[in-house]
Amino acid sequence: MFNVWKSMIYVAFALLVATPGWLSAATMADTLAPAPTAPVISISDSELLGLQNQLNSLKQQVSQASTYTQLESSQDLVLALIQNIERLSTSLLPGQAQLQAQLNVLGPVPLDENAQVTSAITTQRDTLGEQKDRIDNQLKTLAALKVSAAELITQIASIRRSLLEAEVTQQTNSILNPRFWSPLFDLPLDDRQRFSALVQQLNVTHQAAWQPGQRAITASLLVLALVIWSLGRKLAGRGLAWLCIHRMPEGRLRRSSLALASVLATVLSAGIALQLLHFAATRQLPYTPLLADLAQYLEKLAYTCVMITGLSRALLSTKHPSWRLPDIADPVALAIEPYPRRLASLLLVLVTLVQMSNVTGMSAEVVLFGRGIVALVVALVIGALLLRVSKTRRALIVAGENPEGVTTSAGLIYVFAGIAVVVSLFALVIGYVTMARFITYEMVWIFIVFAAFYLLTQVYQDTCESLFSPRQPTGKAIKQLLGIGNPRLEQICTVFSGAGRAILMLIGVIALFVGGIGTTFGQLVTSTAAILGGEGLRKLNIVPDNLMRAFLTLMIGVYLIRTLRRWLDGEFLPKTEMDPGMCASLSTLFANIGYASIVLLTLSSLGIKWTNLAWIVSALSVGIGFGLQEIVKNFISGLILLTERPVKVGDLISISGVEGDIRRINVRATEIQLADRSIMIVPNSHLISQNLRNVTLGGSAQGVVILELMFPLDIDPELVQNLLMDSYTEHESILDKPAPFLRFSQLKPEGITLTITGYVGSPRTVGAIKSELLFEILKRLGAAGIELAKPPPTP
Questions:
Q1: 242-247 long-range CB contacts below 8 Å, 24 or more apart?
Q2: Most CB atoms closer than 10 Å: which of 311, 406, 526, 594?
Q3: What mean pLDDT do residues 236-261 have?
Q4: For the chain, which domains are there?
């Protein structure tokens, strides 16, 4: 059987050798040719042309716009165009990467004599190259369109700013002037015709929705929308509240989550109800362009009013005072409660009328009248709210109760709102109607932004405290994973909470400036992303995927460093022949190098290129030159101490009159424990640059016990000498070599001074042994009747 297999192998080898060159070439070509892959996603030239035409149309529309509302509508369309361009660009990127990977597999054209193999590879490469060039050109075109659209957004903002400045600074009729109220009693003929045209379009839409056979469906949709807004909102609020109560841990997180749940229930139910209303109105006949613009603005206005009522209901929480987040007394909350609903209802009605005059192009007198009425009503409602709150607080103070925890921010809010109301009313009186409208709108928008981000900040902070709480399972798991204690866990919680609140505050400030009444959540997200996701962040290549990878790298790296350091300190280093000081130095050096490596790996995981960090290096060099040079000097000195080891942990040193044991050598400074057990922090550079006495260097240092005693002139010197020498030589801690010795130090009229010196095994025992010797010498002197010399009396 073995011979048969052997013969078959020989035959196969012979056939392989004798195979003609064309067969070998064909087989090699089939092997080198890449397998067919999934088709690459591409977009047609007609789509690109359509995007270009849409952008050109928007540019023409912006150039012809003459009102603030028209520019706002154009801005929404440009933002939608940018989102569409980004979606198409994202869909092309995987195909570009796939084609590039296939071209990398094929490589350059081989210099091979086999023309058939070269031809097959060249054909495949040319095909892939053409596809990749097509996608590259499409991506370049999309990028150019996006840049042009972004420039158009900037131009729209500039034009809107100019129009707003012109309108705000324009003085018209005062509300005290009868001409201001003339549109209410005598509407101009042209304006009546425009309003009639709008009413006719509304009647057409109404008749289409209420035509025979459709009335039942339309009525059902309207009733369903009403039920969802009223009953559905209550049921959703109760359901979310039940989830928060039974699923959230006890404490502040449950309270803040209940407030957030209330807002979510209000917004979601309102959104569903609005969609049902829109479907009921356009189910049979779509809106005309005029009605479409009006409906789009009214939808934004409805969401604004819903946010006013939802946020006020969640923060005041009059039905459940224990759920209330701000420190507001119950009477004050009850006094505030009706005003947000009144404000939202009046805004919904009045601004709708004003917007109807805007979209129909009514005269400036009618538009200014509507703006003035809205500004007047909003200012009066907010002013009444402030007066009611002030009156309630004064009544509580008179009654001896504490109305609320008044803080600086709360006081500033009251003052700011009061000043804004007074200024807006004064502007209406002197004829600056648009300025008054702008101030009142900004007051409402500031309330929405402040209330929303206050709620989000509280939820985020409470989430961090619950997540990192040592009493919660997550906190226990983090402690076990990282091997840290409660203080370090609290520090991590503080860092995460502070960073998150800072980011939310930054986004809130951006929302204040880029938004206003009628701004949707999508517009806020787009505008914020455009500001935060600028060219700098794009160069740094910071994306969510990189952020998650960097976070995991940091957490796992810290855990590994701490685990390895505990293993070094507890198992490996104690089993070596190194002294404890050397072990501590090696452990600290390993930790410093490890943490530096983790920082580098984290930056690498973020996708940050070192060439993009040149500005950081430049700023750091300037900082080192001015303020960080001491820190850098101490850091380098710490590395020298850990490597050259002129001193080490456990040494007894003396520097600048300070003597103590080295307990720890940190990156910046060294901890020295003094005789009274206190710790003195000495910069590492002082240990390198100043004269330092290392008492225990080398491990063979001996302590010196020196006593100086003064005796009267009439004593027997030999007797005293023998007594002192016997006290030293008989003490068990005094070394025989070197032997103790006595010297005659001084001779004065007051007496003679004798100095006796002895050596002990360690400098650390000098103090205790000196005390024992003094007790023994005084005892022997007293037994021998020898007294010490008395100091001369002071004059």
A1: none
A2: 311
A3: 87
A4: 19-168 (no CATH), 179-467 (no CATH), 703-784 (3.30.70.100)
